[in-house]
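Q: What would this chain look like folded?
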Amino acid sequence: MQIFVAVCVAALVAVSLAAPADAPVPQIISAEFDQKPEGGYVYSYETQDGIKKNEQGEVKTVNDEDNKPQQVVVVRGTYSYADNDGQLHNVNYVADENGFQPESADIPVQA
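A: My prediction, written as structure tokens:
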């Protein structure tokens, strides 16, 4: 639950920093969090201004550089938001032992 609260607060801080100083802070209209006993989780939220995020984490065993097994949390998710012109932006991502890997039509791809 603490992770969920921290993520929601971070999201609202990010939104408020991007908004003009006199703009109201969007209200959270839905939020869910489910912590799994093995360490995984599922969470989502939606704000009044249309920001949405869905994410799930699952524990996976991988070998480190010394070929010793270690547990990592693999995170898969998506978020979306509308920019100031009302255009919707979607980002899908995976974060695992290979780092953060976002995918979106809005992210330039190196040729």
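The mean pLDDT is 84.
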